[in-house]
Amino acid sequence: MASLKVLSALDTAKTQLYHFKAIIVAGMGLFTDAYDLFCIPPIMRLIGRVYYEHESEDHKYVIPPIITSTMVVIALLGTAIGQVAFGRLGDRIGRRRVYGVALIIMVLSSFGCGFSVCSTRWCVLLSLGLFRFILGIGIGGDYPLSATIMSEFSNYTTRGAFIAAVFSMQGFGILAASMVTMVVCAIFEHASDGVAEDLTPKDADFAWRLILMIGAIPAGLTFYWRMMMPETASSNLFQSKIYNHHLPMKEQLNAYQDAFQVAKFQAIIAACSTIPGYWFTVYFIDKVGRVKIQMMGFFFMALVYLALGIPYYKYWDKKPNTGFLVLYALTFFFANFGPNTTTFIVPAELFPARFRSTCHGISGATGKVGAIIGSVGFLWASHDGEGKVYPEAIGMTFSLIMLAIVCLLGMVVTFLFTRETMGRSLEENENDD
């Protein structure tokens, strides 16, 4: 009876300052997640300059695609494991206690990513891969706990908006990763002006480590507030190809300028497409509903992917192509004003409290498995059976059309199987058969 009174009080409570504080505190893990994921493309440019000596025809030091894909897959695998494990622990021993453990793992592994004492290429890559896997576990643990805690602190009239606002912190993490990378590269380039002819300054090996370690700061700052909280009652997988093929680049860029250009592109996408998508969801989620937004997002993503994929060989396969980049940015908008955000919200509302965190973790981990399959699948689509690399256009066309098909399937599954949770209390959702 007491717990029902608490739930009733939460459902009728007015929006107060602690709601916004909870959004910041709960969202900082997602901020860190996005920071660490989106600082990797420019960092891989720097690592390529430092540790790969061979030079391509367009004067860029290139890391083999399998290495870049492996770095993505390792982090996703750790995230999937963390979602399942910490989701279950959150239901068994309490959200708050496990929340702190996930945060500590994120902070320590972020520092670990930059603290490799190795000097050889493979030792550095193995060390970075290990700490990114551990970082993924911490990030994965943060996902179900953040969504569950926010859902259980909110009232039913604004619950969707508050959970979406937590998730929107990813957008600011993307922007922060790009801005930090640009600032660090600008500072290091200014300091190395005396060696203008050196396209790969020696300090570049320190620059990428510093960018990674800075990602631990915002998460660490929220640790105290997380411990003071009361106990409660997917498409960037082939971004490196996009950058290499469509991003305008001048010849003979040094390492810092190369990474700066990639980070600048990411910042523009985040500011003009990704973040607006999140906040469109925040505004409309409790007016339109979860199911309609999810179906709409899937539908328009499918249209954009088809518009990119079908004419790719004859029309988009140019370097650079501004029209392609504009359409590509729209996929981020409709992902976040659509399924990327709603699939974070619905599991936190739909499942019973006794295994809400567990089921949210399983739901999120399933998505990460799909992302891993997509990452490996894109690499596979770029090669024939004998390991020969297909022309760029063939792999891109296949991947973009497959993404469109997946989006259309997602729209159908949403229509057939997803229950609307808008305007319903958590106990109403729990008591439904």
TrEMBL record:
It is a multi-pass membrane protein. InterPro entries: MFS_dom, MFS_sugar_transport-like, MFS_trans_sf, Sugar_transporter_CS. The chain crosses the membrane at residues 20-40, 61-86, 98-115, 122-141, 161-185, 206-225, 265-285, 297-313, 325-346, 393-417. Keywords: Membrane, Transmembrane, Transmembrane helix, Transport. One of its GO terms (cellular component) is membrane. Pfam families: Sugar_tr. This is Major facilitator superfamily (MFS) profile domain-containing protein. It comes from Quercus lobata (Valley oak). The lineage of its organism: Eukaryota, Viridiplantae, Streptophyta, Embryophyta, Tracheophyta.
